Amino acid sequence: IANGERAVHIASLINNLTKELTILTSGPADFDAEQRAKLERHNIPVIEKKITEIEHQNGHVDNIVFEDGTKMNFKAVYAAIPFLQNCDIAEQLGCELTEQGYIQVDSMQKTNVPGVFACGDSTSMMRSVALAVASGNLAGAMLNMELVNEIFV
Hints:
With about 150 residues, this protein is α+β, with helices and mostly antiparallel strands. It is built from four helices and five strands; from the N terminus they run H-E-H-E-E-E-E-H-H.
């Protein structure tokens, strides 16, 4: 369930897992000619009907229900969920956010606010424990270096 560039990206990833793939845009599709051609080359149908419900049994998907009352059965559903920060601490501190809502950091995990570092899922669209740990490690090391440089003059 996605549209535009995000749908094409997710489709390319899922296409490695299964060839039984359908894109549901839940409204008018937003693909350029190149994206449409790519989807057609890979035989990925696009359904533009508005989704009203996902029927499931104990969390296991059964059907997608469309506004016109029709249903389609699916074994799995992948959705492009918009990213939202879980709290507004970064904004309260004055940290800049990216267009997608992530905390803007430099290569050392430093924000635009002096002394404020950020890491993990709040700074990157890459959902990975390893990346979160690595960025946390880097943020901690850089913060420690700043503190040492302040104290040890």
